Amino acid sequence: MTELTRIPAPDGVAPAAAYTHVVMGTGRFVAISGQLALDEDGKLVGEGDPAAQARQVFENLRRCLAATGATLDDVVKLTFFVTDMAYMPAIRAARAEHIREDRLPAASAVQVAALVRPEFLMEIEAYAVLPE
Q1: Other CB atoms closer than 10 Å to residue 92's CB: what's the count?
Q2: Are 125 and 65 in contact (CB under 8 A)?
Q3: What is the pLDDT of residues 45-62, one digit of tens each?
Q4: What is the rounded CA–CA span in Å between residue 106 and residue 91?
Q5: If 0-12 CB within 10 Å is exposed, 13-18 middle and 19+ buried, where does residue 12 land?
Q6: Which of 17, 57, 115, 118 lies deepest, with the highest CB count within 10 Å?
Q7: pTM for this model (two decimals)
Q8: What's the distance, CA 112 to chain centroid?
Q9: Rounded Cα–Cα distance for residues 70 and 74 (Å)
């Protein structure tokens, strides 16, 4: 695992409650495309259930990262695309199952009008840094 430096509250910036403002490191950059709540057969998991969808999305992120030799501890940035901000508590709960509180990445949350199919409630992408 690469050594990442987290700066939760840079001078003059209000502390963040559920993410880290700045994460930096050196090494190989990994970009994981936005993941949806699809199982390995391409079937939707958790129709209408943001908690079930969030758990599946984080499992997909975990699997994608594993393919590169990374873990969710190596993630420096997450971007959450949601069709309703009310899904953020479910996303945070699923994230907490995979990422320790002291290793939170930088993050952005964006409410969108729609995703690729109407049954998807969220899509989450990740950036990670691995050792050289």
Answers
A1: 17
A2: no
A3: 999 999 999 999 999 999
A4: 15
A5: exposed
A6: 57
A7: 0.92
A8: 16
A9: 6
Strand-pair category, 28-35 with 122-130: antiparallel
- Which backbone phi and psi does 77 adopt, to 5 degrees? -155, 135
Packing angle, helices 50-66 and 88-98, rounded to 10: 40
Q: How many CB atoms lie within 10 A of CB 6?
A: 17
Given the structure tokens 């209408």, which residue do they identify?
48
Cβ atoms within 10 Å, residue 10: 10
Q: Which residues partner with 128 through β-bridges?
A: 30, 75
Is 6's pLDDT higher than 60? yes
Helix (H) or strand (E) holding 94: helix 88-98
User: Residue 76 phi/psi, 5° resolution?
Assistant: -105, -20
